[in-house]
Amino acid sequence: MIGSYFVTGKWCNTRTEVALAMQDAGASNREIGEKLGVSVSTASALLASGHRAKSRGGTGVPSQRGKYGIPTAALETAIMDLWDEGKSYDQIAEALNIRRETAQKIVAYMREGATDWSMGGAAAARGSEALLAALLRHHPERCTIATLGRRQ
């Protein structure tokens, strides 16, 4: 289910939230399943999950946010903005109230060019050689010494 739904007088953003609201309004599991487009067993599982969360003191619905209270993409953007400003890992962690290790991990995989050499220079060279061989094999008419950058 994508988007928000108005169910029994309130807005619901998740399937669990819809299921709980419909159950509170007296709907059967079959009716809940039909509304959500899921099987009766899936509707039952959503209700059970919501009730377990409520019994632990939660709202009964899953969080719409990432681990640190904001969506993961927004957290990555905030971290990289601070990194681009020249902030240290400690400063980023303090500013966003996250662990230093989280800032380090996100910067490591988001940094420009970080994945370019992830397999090492030798692997990149092998990949380039394989690409050139495929070009020569499948498109020989397009391959000249100048376009392939080969030296004689």
Could you characterize the architecture of this molecule?
InterPro entries: WH-like_DNA-bd_sf. The chain has 152 residues and is mostly helical. The protein is 59% helix and 4% strand. It has eight helices and two strands. It has a two-stranded antiparallel ribbon. Helix 1 runs antiparallel to helix 2 (29-36) and helix 4 (72-84) crosses helix 6. The termini are far apart. The mean pLDDT is 77.
Note the main attributes of this structure.
Arc Repressor Mutant, subunit A; single chain; WH-like_DNA-bd_sf; mainly alpha; two-stranded antiparallel ribbon; 152 residues
Short structural description:
This protein is mostly helical and 152 residues long. It has 2 domains: 52 residues, Arc Repressor Mutant, subunit A, CATH 1.10.10; 68 residues, Arc Repressor Mutant, subunit A, CATH 1.10.10. The protein is built from 8 helices and 2 strands, in the order E-E-H-H-H-H-H-H-H-H.
Oligomer: single chain
- What is the CATH C level class of the largest domain, in words? Mainly Alpha
Overall pLDDT level: 77
Give the count of helical stretches.
8
Helix content: 55-70%
InterPro entries: WH-like_DNA-bd_sf (IPR036388)
Question: Layout of helices and strands, plus pairs?
Answer:
Elements: E1 5-7, E2 10-12, H1 15-24, H2 29-36, H3 40-55, H4 72-84, H5 89-96, H6 100-110, H7 120-138, H8 145-148
Antiparallel strand pairs: 1-2
InterPro entries: WH-like_DNA-bd_sf (IPR036388)
